[in-house]
């Protein structure tokens, strides 16, 4: 199995999961700022390369039966600061993988996101047949990439499926994302920058549950089909509620929570109808309370993983993203 983007957060958990299932795993990863070789077991076959480069894909995929593509630029805020790499990796990279399928005949699972459906503020849950309506440069690039999949299935008969996962959290997540940023800032006694009114809703999915859903689609998903992977209504929480829970679990002072200028184009709510994947036998096993507690414990016990990250390139990004915002923030 080739796992592209396997050195990132979800991809590295997926690699370990496949190894536990007895699969031989090969990883192709560009090691961008969020890719980390230390996320992976030392014995995994690793190729440093780019999914948008045909030669890198051909080299890594030689002898593989399938590819699961996690490789992407993944942070909405960074796509607002500079979107170019998002288009290249999400669209061109997916196209290179699909072109490889045409000659090799191997299977692809394209890991996409619930953000392709856009804002569901008005209510309801997105079904796989709903129109795509992305809001950010990130989600538009993800939608563009995944739209190639049914087109290549129909036109060239390749064997490829799509997963659309909801907001995922757990160990090893790069600390720019909401939960790991707030947890590590709280552990360090730093401000927690809550965007806007903090009433935005996300459907929080524990990383192992997300990986289990992707593995099921890899083994049993139909070509040309998309499958939603989300925790469901009971795990839809407002950001402010999640932030308060993090303050409790870390024992940090409530005054750290700051209301800052909102994200431009910020989607208010995501929600997925997951009945299609549940009909194949999948359901999430880790509730938000247990998953968040385990995640906080992991970050508390693994400072050696995240402290070097937060002192490197991250500092410059943090200043650009939050410097002005925090200087004009209000208590939340
Ligand atoms: P991440 O940023 O932790 O990992 C992305 C990985 O892709 C990194 O290892 C990076 O080095 C690699 N990469 C980037 N560009 C590459 C390229 N051109 N060639 C090869 N490797 C490249 O992200 P993540 O949170 O683990 O997300 C993985 C996938 O899951 C992404 O496709 C993302 O869109 C999707 N997804 C994420 C979430 C979430 O909440 N984190 C939810 C739904 C879907
Ligand atoms: O829904 C799936 C998507 O979830 C994935 O496709 C993306 O790769 C992943 O990054 C994530 O996107 P979000 O934009 O939903 O996640 P993020 O962690 O950036 O933000 C979650 C919520 O928290 C969102 O409403 C914005 C808010 N937020 C985020 C940050 C980083 C804050 O209030 N303050 C912050 O500093």
Question: How does this structure look, described?
Answer:
It contains 12 helices and 14 strands. It is globular and about 60 Å long. It has a domain at 2-169 and 206-229: Rossmann fold. Helix 1 packs across helix 7, helix 4 packs parallel to helix 5 and helix 6 (178-187) packs parallel to helix 8. The strands form 4 sheets. It has a 7-stranded parallel sheet with strand order 3-2-1-4-5-6-11, with helices on both faces. A 3-stranded mixed sheet has the order 8-13-14, with helices on both faces. A two-stranded parallel sheet has the order 7-10. The longest helix is centred in the first third of the chain and has 21 residues, at 84-104. It is an alpha/beta fold. The structure holds nicotinamide-adenine-dinucleotide and 2'deoxy-thymidine-5'-diphospho-alpha-D-glucose. 2'deoxy-thymidine-5'-diphospho-alpha-D-glucose binds at residues 74-77, 113-115, 166-167, 177-178, 181, 193-195, 200, 202, 239, 263, 270. Nicotinamide-adenine-dinucleotide is lined by residues 4-5, 7-11, 28-32, 34-35, 50-52, 70-72, 74, 89, 93, 111, 113, 142, 165, 167-168, 174.
Q: Helix tally?
A: 12
CATH architectural name of the domain at 2-169 and 206-229? 3-Layer(aba) Sandwich
What structural category do the secondary elements indicate?
A: alpha/beta
> How would you state the average pLDDT, rounded?
97
Q: Tell me the CATH topology of the domain at 2-169 and 206-229.
A: Rossmann fold
Strand order in the largest sheet: 3-2-1-4-5-6-11
Order of helices and strands: EHEEHEHHEHEEHEEEHEEHEHHHHE
